Amino acid sequence: MVAVALVIGVLAGIVTWVVGPSTAMLAVAKAGYLPPFFHSTNKYGMPSKILFIQAVSVSVLAVLFVVMPSVEAAFQVLSQLAGLLYLVVYLGMFASAIYLRYSQSDRRRPYRVPGGIVGMWVIGGIGFVASALALASSLTPPDQIGVGNPALYIGLLVGLAIMIIAVPLVMYTLRKPHWRDPASDVAPFTWEARRDRADGADAPG
Fold it and tell me: What is the pLDDT of residues 26-38, one digit of tens each?
């Protein structure tokens, strides 16, 4: 009975991890940040094409289990890659928090870091430095697991991280106005909203 319960729990977790990101990607796509190719869903409302691309991407990453000297080494690379991407996001969050205090200081927010600009620099700075140190330590090859050539290990982590980060940035740069689904309820970025308002104000008539 316990084993059956564990299997059900694991399957539920897999469904959550598979469907959750793809559903979020569908919302992003319909908001105009991905081509209409990614907008399609099947009869159950699932983003079929996004799921297909997700399956292909995971299959490509699974090649690491062949390239690396052991299963443990491949799992270590994938685990560290996930942590590396998380830390890059945190670096961006802490840096953005400080930047937005200057660029949008008059914007009303539900919560503000106490201490004014000094408090923001202290909290954001500590968070940024801690994330940077954690990121640097994640690039250190572990002693407990044989990962083969240390340069290959670090190169795989850095290369895969750069590729994964670069893809959405390129897609955002290449986005077109007609990509947005009129039924999308995702709010645009703040600077996009301000730009649209400015363009509307400058329009004749």
Answer: 888 888 888 888 8
